[in-house]
Each structure stands twice: as structure tokens, then as C-alpha cells.
Amino acid sequence: MCFIGSYGPRRCGVAAFTEPLRRALVSCDPTSVCSVFAMNDPGRTYVYPAEVAHTIEEESLVAYHRAADLLNETATDVVCLQHEFGIFGGVEGRHVLALLRRLSMPIVTTLHTVPEAPNPAQREVTRELCDLSERLVVMSPGSAETLQRIYRVASAKIDVISHGAPAAVDRERSRTLLELGARPTLLTFGLLSPNKGIEYGIDALPAIVETYPKVVYVVLGATHPRVRAHQSERYRQSLEGRAEELGVRANVVFQNRFASDEELAQFLSAADIYLVPYLNPTQSTSGTLAYAVGAGKAVIATAFPYAMEILANGRGVLVPAADSGAIADAALDLLGNHRKRSRMERKSEALGRTMRWDQVAASYLDSFRHAVRAREQRSHTMPRGLAATSRGIRRVHLGHLRAMTDDSGLLQHATLCAPRYSAGYCLDDNARALLLMVRRAKLQRRPLRSQGLATRYLAFIEDAYVPTSGRFRNFMSHSRQWLETCEAEDSHGRALWALGTLGGSPNPSGHRELASSLFDRALPASLTFDSPRAWAYTLLGLDARSAREAPDRTMVTVRRELAGRLFALFADARSESWPWGEDTLTYCNARLPEALIATGARLRDPPMLATGLRSLRWLARLQSDTSGIFSPVGSKRFLASGGAKATHEQQPVEACTMVSACLLAHRTTGSLEWLPYARMAFDWYLGANVLDRSLYDASTGGCRDGIHEGRLDENQGAESTLSFLMALVEIQLHERSAPTGRPRDRAALRVVEDPENDPNEE
User: Within this chain, do residues 80 and 201 fall inside the same structural domain, yes or no?
Assistant: First the structure.
């Protein structure tokens, strides 16, 4: 097991939770190994105990990637993330998602806060945390309900495990040690910050002192490090000044230190009433309140969700926030009614017995084992791939693709998630869509439907064909008028690729025969092409067509000619610094080496294969930035030899082509070097990019159109959506065909297959 989160001697609530939980886990299962990857806050270093195996700098994205890679090299069975907003870097802590996406083992996430009314960034981060995690742990039924209602998490994925608490100690001995004598005692403990509302506890004292002149209010805890860094000790000093002004300074004891669990147990046992005057009305967890109930204390707390749950059934008194009068009334009632307070203590003690750290640890072990079993079972029945890395995507969501398709075919562009009819259609996208549907049918081991999307895309391609020229047209208006007389070479090549793939597949004969007929008629025109990408698409179509039947003379001639041209282009590029067949990197770059690799392997041509691998390796490294994320060549300023690469105007099609080419390189060579590049390119869609934002929209099944400088292009067009879906299907197909290897190898890429009853099926 490995915990990720803050850890002592760092002072914060998550650290105070993780330390005793880890101790209890090791005690509960002495054969286990339980390490910690600790978060370091900016500008601070700590002398950590031996169980801290690694530290992560909060604001360094590279550090999160490095931590994931280190974990993947260990024998860790499960990672337990202790999540709280404020301890991870990036907007609302999104840097930690980059770590989780890269992990190869199941993740169990403890959510210390579940926002009821999240801001957009909190909502996005929480949703992705839920998707990446095999199990989710929350500390109250209310938080579980919020996860289901606000974040659409299945109840079966959630474990409700209470916050742990230490065992109570002898009350009289504690009062003697703390020199409290017979004084009525109120207690609040924890790191001090303005949202704790301690000033309202002090404001309540004058009314309490009138009846109990010797009452003492103990405020135990150091100022929160982040508060101290920005405000020094002003908050504590304001509390001391407030007590002085109200004439109750002698009744308030400030213990300005971070107490150990043993000290906390003593203070809690000695107290008559535990006071929780918090000001946050939506707080979903409170470790200090859990400790008080665990110690069997009578409690007065403001009515935030966790307090309302844990103090139900007479275990405490709820008061409005920021109401010192209500606090005073409740304290006077409990101090003056010993029988009522004793009943409340007995009820708290009964619940507290179920909150001991050993019992909490046993529940966590059950959750960990459940997570590991679930991952193992799925790995035997479903493709092994990017399940965690790809935000737990369970299916190929065709919702947006269907919305973008009408009776004519697939529309080109969208305004946000709505089809833009004025943009019409193009052959490029309909060919891509047909290719996607053929590969998805292969993944599902089911034939294409005769009345499905694939038939519509095939019909569009057939209508685009011009028999007199043997070429395809590309653009059509929404009124079904073809808009050009000259045909684009690249779109012709993409059509051949899609048709060749369908013609070489075991799909219904009508589909195959039409695709093969169009392919045969359109293939000769490819010999007139000047575009290297058109050559590459055609070669990929020829390779796919050859998988089912021996190539005829025309196919052999065209392949020999186009492969020779493409190979010569790259073979002449002898520069180590620019081993590329063009002077400029433009678009769909990885398709060129992919075609060389596919054709070189098919023809058993080692020089061609080696040239493809060499150029792909260079491209993959060029498009990996220093923080370990995929950073493709931007389309606004293509990369010329000797020039500087733009970091924006990145397009989804580039990530798709890199996934395809690297997976082909792995299948062809068996080398594991290609899988991290494929994973990196796919993760780009899901937030591992220069903006740290997801391009994939899980609610629609669409993909945003790209990354501009400082922002996403929020439109979800056909090309971008098809690029994401194709990359996802490619990974699924690759994992299905991958041979069984070592566990580390099998976990390199993880995606879960589309279920049989997918409502978005074709």
C-alpha cells in the first residue's frame, strides 16, 4: 500500500489523519508494507520518518509525473490518495490528476471534502478523481449522497468509513495531569484559522461566567501554517484581545502547539463539553469532531452537514453558526444538567467505539482488497488498458457523433456541442468516421449494422466518387450540393484507407463489396498524387485490404510505387537533428512513419521498417515536453527545420496519429519503449497537456477542437471527436491483441471495453 497526501511533521488535517491510519493498518496486517509519498508545501522541507519513501513538490508538475513513474516501478498493489483541496498544486489541486492518470495500479481515494456547491474547477477535478479511482471513501452518508447526486458516482463504488478516533483515557487522571481541578471545562482543538469561529466561543463566555465563574475554555492548537504565512499570528492575537476586552481572559487558556494523539486524548477526556463553532455551513468532515465523539464527549457544534449526521440521536447540541448566545445557552444547559450530559456522553461513547482506528483500518483494508479484486477480475474479462489513466472510460460514447450525423452524413463543425449546419460536410470526416465504425465493430466482435452509422458514411463516400475522373470530391453543402470541381489528394487517400479497411474486414458482404469496388476504381488515381500524406493514407488502406486477400497486380504496383516514394523521401533525410522527409512538420505527422512501419513489416523490408521507426522515435521525443506531457506541433505556426515549436494551437488529430503509430510500432517490434508515448498522447485528451484541462467531454462524448494560447477551443467538431474516439478504440484493440506478459507490461495501457448493452451503439 502507498498513501499519497500530506504527512507529519507537516501540520494539517490530512497529515493528522493519515499518520494514525497508517499505523493502524500496519498493526492490523503486520505482513503488509505501507509507504507514503508525502506532499511538500512551497518553500518548506521536513525531516520525515522512515515510512515516507518519496516527496512531491506541490507546484511542480514534473514532480507528479516522476512520482507516478516511481510508483509504477514498485510492487505496490494499491494507492490510497488522501484528497483535500489546498494540498495539491494547480487550479483546485488538478496537478495530482497528472499523477493518477499515469498509475498502473488501482487507486482508492479518500475524499476529505465533497463540495455540495462546487465551482467549475472543483467540479471538474472531483469528477475526474472519481473516474480515476477504483473505490471512493467518504466519512459520512451525506457525502456519499452528494457524490451520487452532484457527481453521478455509482453507489457501488463508494465506501462510507468513519473518521478514526483514539481510545478514551481515564478522565480523572487527565484532569489531574492538566491541573484543571474541578473547573468546568470547554475545549476546542485543531489548527487555528478564521473559519473555525473560535471568537464566538469566547463571546459566549461572559454569559457562562455569570453562573460558573471558574469555567475555562481551552483552545488547543497552533495557527495553521498557511494562515501564519500570510497573517502571522494576527488571528490568535485577535482572540486574546477579544477575551481581554470581554473580561474573560482568565477563563481562556491558549495552548499554542500541535498536540500529539496522546495529548489530545488527555485533553478530550478531561473536558466537560467539546465546542465546534465552525463557520463553514457546508463542511463535509471534521477530524476534531470525530475525535470528540470517539472520546464520548458531549458536543456543541454549529449545524454543518457532518455535525448534523454524527451528532444525531441526541449525541450533541446543534446551534446556528456565528451565534454566541446560542452557544452560551447550550453550554449552560449541559453544565447545569448532569443527567442530560451523561446521556449524551453515553450515546457518543457507543458510536465512538465503532470509530477506533483499528476498526477504521480494517474497513480500509476491505476497500483496498475490493479494489484489487475488481481490477483483477476486469483484467481477465475486458481489455487491459487505460482504465485509470483515461479517467475510467467504460465505453466508446457515440452520443456526440450521432448528434453530428444526419441523413446525408457527418457534419464537419459544431458550435460548442451543437452541429453547425452552415459548415456542411466533407469527405475527410466521413472517411474517418467509417474507419472508426469498422474498427469499433472489430472491437465488439460484431458486424456493422445495415441501417447504422457506417452505412451512412459509406454512402457519403460512394456519392463523393466521380467515375469520369476516378477521384473523390471533398466538400458538400448542407443543401447536398458538391462545392468543388478539383479533388483534394489527402481526402482521396483517407477515403482509400477507410474503404481498404472495410474491404479487408469480415463485415457484411454488401458493405465489403461496395467498399472494395470503390477502392479498386479509385486506387489508380493515387499514382498521380504529390502529397506524402496521401501516399501514407493509401498505403495504410492497401495494408488493411491485404489482411483479408492477396493483393492484385494494381495493388502491388501502387504499393511498390508509393512506398518507394515515401521511403526515398525519408531515407534521404540523413540529418540526426532532423530525420524527417520534409522541411516542415505540419499536420497528421505520425501517419508518415506509421505507413512506413506498416508497409515495411508487410513487405518484410527491414530498411523501410527501420526508417519508419527512426522517424517516429524522433517525432515522439520532439513532441514530449520536459514535464512529461504530450505537446504536439501547433497548427498556427508549423515547425520548420531549425525553428522553434509553438506550444499552442494544438490539434486533437495529432494525439490520435501518435497513439496509432506508437501502438503499431509496439505490435511490430514488441518493444515497450512505444507504450509510454502512446499513453502520453492519449492522456493529452484527458488533461495531461499544457493547460492541464480535459478536451474530452464525458457528458456528450465529444472532444473539444484544440488548445489555443491559454484556453481551450470549446467547439466539439467532427475531426476532434473522431480523433479521440479512434485513439480510444485503437488502445482497446491493441490491448485485446497484446500477448500476456509480466504484470508491469500488462498494466502499461488500460481501457475498459464498451459493454454489450451500450445505449449509444451504432
Answer: no
- Alpha carbon separation from 693 to 95, 362, 449, 681 (Å, rounded): 10, 37, 36, 14
Place 653 in a pLDDT band, splitting at 50, 70 and 90. Answer: very high
Retrieve residue 695's grid coordinates. Answer: 478536451
Q: Are 277 and 105 in contact (CB under 8 A)?
A: no
Name the strand (E) or helix (H) holding 32: none
DSSP run (H or E) holding 230: helix 225-231
Closest CA to 394 of 138, 137, 130: 130
Query: How many angstroms separate the CA atoms of 233 and 215, rounded?
Result: 26
- Domain-embedded: residue 56: yes
Closest CA to 501 of 565, 451, 440, 581: 440
What are 172's three cell numbers?
A: 480523572
CATH code, domain carrying 196: 3.40.50.2000
Which of 303, 324, 355 terminates a domain? The answer is 355
- Amino acid, res. 113: T
Q: How many domains does the chain have?
A: 3
CA distances from 263 to 139, 180, 268, 355 (A): 24, 15, 9, 18
Using only the alpha carbons of the chain, give its radius of gyration: 32
Q: Read off the pTM.
A: 0.68
pLDDT digits (tens, 9 = 90+) for 689-747: 888 888 998 889 999 999 998 899 999 999 999 999 999 999 888 877 754 433 333 33
Which of 136-145, 456-465, 571-580, 702-711 is predicted with the least confidence, judged by mean pLDDT? 571-580
Phi, psi of 745 (to 5 degrees): -70, -45
Bin 446: left if φ > 0, else alpha if -120 < ψ < 50, else beta: beta
**Position 382 in a domain:** no
Interval 264-275 mean pLDDT: 92
Nearest alpha-carbon partner for 133 in 154, 164, 115, 116: 154
pLDDT tens digits for 128-184? 899 899 999 999 999 999 999 999 999 999 999 999 998 888 888 888 888 888 899
